[in-house]
Amino acid sequence: GPMDSDDLHEWASFDLDGNTYLFDLTFLASNWSCIFGAGCLGVLTGPAPELVQGCCSYGAHFTGKKDRKKVERYVERLTDGQWQFKAEAAELGGPIYKNDDGDIVSRVVDGACIFLNRPDSPMGAGCSLHAAALEAGERPLDWKPEVCWQLPLRLDHHVDDNGHYTYTLREWKRRDWGEGGEEFHWWCTEGPEAFVDAQTVYVTLRDEIVELVGEGPYEQLGSYLQARTTEQFRPHPALRRRAPDGARP
């Protein structure tokens, strides 16, 4: 029947300050967690946990000039010790450029984003911007390209004929990558391996959600979630796809 849909999500919607907000409760009330460096299989065409690239294999696509300028200000603060490819970036004419399609992107070196430190670097594997932000006691989301801190959340907005805005906050799906998304071996909001946090996404990604929709809608969502306990939600489709005996597929 219709309840057998492979990807059935529950939603909450409410109006606030003249806008409508739609929230993907199935994802926001789930225990998804970024497992970068902890078994993440990456987004290549086969499993590659040993490369520790996470979703950084193809570099970052910037949302525009503002996103680029912001990141470039933080890039200036990166030291040689924090950023494995700092010298190489300078030789290449900077880590960010406009490609042939007119997209602003980070360069890819040795098969992944130029900002990604590899396992053999002094900092260990991970985004140099993310690591440097933490060292500085600042928020990685302020340092990183928008797409990199928003994943796996996605905010869409729609304006109707009367100028009324509806904002939709949901999980990022394969289709959001364009055609390439179907070729990934693994995408983490589909894998039960990533649903391992003790807390819900609503709690763990608080800063990211507030940055996307604002404090008011975040609190409104919180009171709605508190009124329901997570046990009452249908489990996330990724968890329903587990093998019947509880074994990992």
What does this structure look like?
The chain contains ten helices and ten strands. The strands form four sheets. It has a four-stranded mixed beta sheet with strand order 1-2-10-9. Strands 3-4 form a two-stranded antiparallel ribbon. The protein has a two-stranded antiparallel ribbon with strand order 5-6. The model has no long low-confidence stretch (mean pLDDT 93).
Quaternary form: single chain
What proportion strand? Answer: 15-25%
Largest sheet: 4 strands, mixed
Task: Work out the number of β strands.
Answer: 10
Radius of gyration: 19 Å
Shape: globular
Mean pLDDT: 93
The percent range for helix content is 25-40%
**Could you tell me how far the N terminus lies from the C terminus, measured between alpha carbons in angstroms?**
24 Å
Unreliable spans are: none
**Structural class estimated from helices and strands:** alpha+beta
Count, helices: 10
What's the arrangement of strands in the largest beta sheet?
1-2-10-9
Order of helices and strands: EEHHHEEEEEEHHHEEHHHH
